[in-house]
Specification:
binds magnesium ion, 11 helices, five-stranded parallel beta sheet, binds threonylcarbamoyladenylate, 2 domains, 16 strands, eleven-stranded mixed beta sheet, Rossmann fold, alpha/beta
């Protein structure tokens, strides 16, 4: 493959002929990146095993990492699964379309390549108007991992997709930045109680508002091992990232100290910084990638992956960042991604 076609569409009212073109490409086994409310996905006909192989190759993704299958509406799930637990219907009514992925028992309609040979399948109904339009026009289930090269941050803009995959995929549907910025929550309903395999855009608090008990997978969990996207080292920036935990003031002092030492040693220092972090480091020769106001988890989530790409591009030698201030709401997903991306953790008090 050599030419990746970029189709620009309006986020809320994509032109039907543009959507038809992308849908047609998918139906024929092509690879099409498209926006969802979380991150850009790299779509492929989920029932076309050969096309699915092509996708793993284009991403450089290990074959043991299963894909999420996306459909336009609830009726589209039934052919993909062998059972629909009551909890699935409850969660669907509350959170779909939206950034929740459910792991259910896989039907034989889904090629083993999609699920990495597992007897379960992850399914999701995305809310983004362009994803909805595409799924509706294609009338097929679409398997879509995040549209990045393996070991790069998930893309939140079409430009990120092209950075990684230009010339390796057929098409990118560009509708501007995605909304949430971190991936969907992956919830395993094949175990009891339901198990959060990946914290994400639907918060634990939201899940707990409709389910009596929810468990969260720890990195050592067997369940997490079955879901390689959950392995501790998922995406890591080129530069070693040090994450600071604890009191914000003390963490900022420690960051400034480390930054000074690194600069003195001739290193280029990058900082993933909230507004408060940036102020505390003023006057130091560091490359700042901004996450926005200190208390704004939604804002930080929307900026996180772009900021990490920015620091990779700036070719810094080390990255300093502060961990999420807690586990409430979207902070849980943010903290999870930060810890996976970091090489070392410093606890201050
Ligand atoms: O927000 C999202 O979920 C985005 C958009 C494009 O929908 N997709 C995404 O896909 O993040 P990906 O492939 O980057 O991450 C999928 C995660 C991985 O951690 C994978 O291991 C897990 O879902 N997963 C997929 N199928 C699974 C299964 N059958 N059992 C357990 N985990 C599964
Ligand atoms: Mg991914």
């Amino acid at each position: 493959m050599s030419l990746t076609v970029v189709i620009q569409v309006d986020r809320d009212r994509p032109h039907p002929s543009d959507i038809a073109r992308a849908a047609d490409c998918l139906r024929r086994g092509g690879l099409v990146a498209f926006p969802t409310e979380t991150v850009y996905g790299l779509g492929v006909h989920a029932l076309d095993a050969e096309a699915v192989q092509k996708l793993f190759y284009a991403k450089g993704r290990p074959a043991n990492d299963p894909l999420i299958v996306h459909v336009a509406e609830f009726a589209g799930i039934a052919p993909l699964v062998t059972a629909m637990p009551d909890a699935a219907a409850t969660l669907a009514a509350r959170f779909w379309p939206g950034p929740l992925t459910l792991v259910l028992p896989r039907s034989r309609a889904v090629p083993p390549a999609v699920t990495a040979g597992l007897d379960t399948v992850a399914v999701r109904i995305p809310a983004h108007p362009v994803a909805q339009a595409l799924l509706t026009a294609a009338r097929i289930p679409i398997a879509a991992p995040s549209a990045n090269l393996f070991s790069r941050p998930s893309p939140t803009r079409a430009a990120h997709v092209l950075e990684d995959l230009n010339g390796r995929i057929d098409m990118v549907v560009d509708a501007g930045a995605t909304d949430v910025g971190v991936e969907s929550t992956v919830l395993d309903l094949t175990v009891s109680p339901p198990l959060v395999l990946r914290p994400g855009a639907i918060t634990l608090e939201a899940l707990e508002s409709v389910l009596p008990v929810v468990r969260i997978a720890s990195p050592s969990d067997h369940a997490a091992m079955r879901s390689p996207g959950l392995l501790p080292k998922h995406y890591a920036p080129r530069a070693a990232m040090t994450l600071f935990q604890g009191d914000p003031g003390a963490a900022r002092n420690a960051m400034a100290l480390l930054a000074r030492d690194a600069i003195a040693a001739g290193q280029r220092v990058g900082v993933l910084a909230t507004a408060g972090d940036a102020r505390a480091l003023e006057g130091l020769q560091v490359v700042i990638a901004e996450l926005g106001p200190d208390e704004d988890a939604e804002g930080a989530a929307a900026k996180l992956y772009a900021a990490l790409r920015e620091l990779d591009t700036a070719q810094v030698d080390v990255i300093l960042a502060r961990d999420a201030p807690g586990d409430e709401g979207l902070w849980r997903a943010l903290g999870d991604r930060l810890r996976r991306a970091s090489a070392a953790i410093v606890v201050v008090d």
